[in-house]
């Protein structure tokens, strides 16, 4: 197994692991936040605009960690600097 | 498959490249400016308003109301900056239903530029509000030991603003492309509809977060000035 295959394999596995750990944990936390917000909405319907606005902001904050993982996995698959370097060095296409 | 419209180069001379990001940013700027100019060309004090004028008024009033709710201050100071951010991002996200269009917010350069605008706007608003010394004092706010963390927080929240918008829009187009390869009949339409929703929400979140950061840099004096009525709990 030469360097190109090794780097390709490690990149793909790492991309899968990154999104596979990042997305579910974030989803659980987001679901928790939404469920708490729904409880509050049921208890205080008058505060609905404030609750939903802070919920949006909070969920977006939580979501950004999953997005970081997604961006890293996309970079590993589509714009991998090590892959480009090795391919350029070995002269393959 | 490209993960960014930066890779599409229309014209190049030396280091100067005209990429798809740049072209579509210009298209959006021209569109926004032309629409506003067309609608506000004939302003009158008549009670009957044209449709476009009504729409723009609804938009501006809505943005003002949101700013007043979130910042708890007079919205006029923030309206130009926050409103421009929101309108630019929302138009660039909504135009993805036009075939052949590449959203400039799907490129990290655009979102980084927008986040840098916010990064510069925070001290500008803070200094305009409290003076240079007053703004610098916020960095040692709880204790001087917190100085590195405050500076780090400035940088990381700018970065997270940029990457959040980029990742959301890029993932939308990426998933649409993937689904197009698997089930090309009906599902891409549904995912495009979801992408429109996400685009509007992300534009809202970007501008609200920018507003929260700016307002937190300007708020303390307001709190000190006003005696707060006690909050009513329901």
Structural features, described:
The complex is a heterodimer of chains A (93) and B (234). Chain A contains three helices and no strands. With 93 residues, chain A is mainly alpha-helical. Chain A has one domain (3-90): F1FO ATP Synthase. The relative contact order of chain A is 0.18. The mean pLDDT of chain A is 87. Chain B has 234 residues and is mostly helical. Chain B has one domain (5-35, 51-225). In chain B, 69% of the residues lie in helices and 4% in strands. Chain B has six helices and two strands, in the order ββαααααα. A two-stranded antiparallel ribbon of chain B has the order 1-2. In chain B, a hairpin with a 2-residue loop joins β1 and β2. In chain B, α3 runs antiparallel to α6, α4 (108-137) runs antiparallel to α5 and α5 (147-182) runs antiparallel to α6. Chain B is globular, with a radius of gyration of 21 Å. The relative contact order of chain B is 0.13. The model of chain B has no long low-confidence stretch (mean pLDDT 84). Chains A and B meet through α2 of A and α5 and α6 of B.
> What is the fold named in CATH at topology level of chain A?
F1FO ATP Synthase
**Poorly predicted residue ranges of chain B:** none
Tell me the Rg of chain A in angstroms: 20 Å
Structural class of the secondary structure composition of chain B? Answer: mainly alpha
Number of helices of chain A: 3
The CATH architecture classification of chain A is Up-down Bundle
At the first level of CATH, what is the class of chain A?
Mainly Alpha
Low-confidence stretches of chain A: none
Please outline the helices and strands:
The complex is a heterodimer of chains A (93) and B (234).
Chain A: H1 3-43, H2 48-78, H3 81-90
Chain B: E1 9-13, E2 16-19, H1 20-39, H2 51-71, H3 79-94, H4 108-137, H5 147-182, H6 187-225
Antiparallel strand pairs in B: 1-2
Helix pairs in contact in B: 1-3, 2-6, 3-6, 4-5, 4-6, 5-6
């Amino acid at each position: 197994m030469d360097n190109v295959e090794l780097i390709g394999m490690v990149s793909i596995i790492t991309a899968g692991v990154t999104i596979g750990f990042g997305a579910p944990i974030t989803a659980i936390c987001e679901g928790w936040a939404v469920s708490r917000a729904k409880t509050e909405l049921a208890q205080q319907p008058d505060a609905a605009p404030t609750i939903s606005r802070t919920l949006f902001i909070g969920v977006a904050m939580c979501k950004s960690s999953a997005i970081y993982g997604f961006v890293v996995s996309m970079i590993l698959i589509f714009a991998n600097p090590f892959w480009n370097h090795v391919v350029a060095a070995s002269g393959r296409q | 498959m490209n993960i960014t419209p930066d890779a599409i180069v229309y014209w190049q001379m030396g280091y100067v490249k005209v990429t798809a990001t740049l072209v579509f940013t210009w298209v959006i700027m021209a569109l926004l400016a032309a629409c506003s100019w067309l609608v506000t060309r004939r302003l009158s004090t008549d009670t009957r308003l044209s449709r476009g004028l009504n729409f723009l008024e609804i938009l501006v009033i809505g943005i003002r109301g949101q700013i007043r709710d979130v910042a708890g201050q007079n919205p006029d100071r923030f309206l130009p900056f926050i409103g421009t951010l929101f309108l630019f991002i929302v138009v660039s996200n909504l135009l993805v239903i036009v075939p052949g269009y590449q959203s400039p917010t799907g490129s990290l350069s655009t979102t980084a530029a927008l986040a840098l605008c916010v990064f510069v706007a925070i001290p500008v608003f803070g200094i305009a509000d409290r003076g240079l010394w007053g703004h610098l004092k916020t960095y040692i706010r709880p204790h001087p030991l917190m100085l590195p963390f405050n500076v780090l927080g400035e940088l990381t929240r700018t970065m997270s603003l940029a990457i959040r918008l980029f990742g959301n829009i890029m993932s939308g187009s990426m998933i649409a492309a993937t689904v197009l390869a698997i089930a090309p009949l009906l599902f891409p339409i549904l995912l495009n509809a979801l992408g429109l929703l996400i685009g509007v929400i992300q534009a809202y979140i970007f501008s609200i977060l920018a507003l929260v950061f700016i307002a937190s840099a300007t708020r303390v004096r307001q709190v000190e000035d006003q005696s707060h009525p006690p909050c009513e709990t329901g």
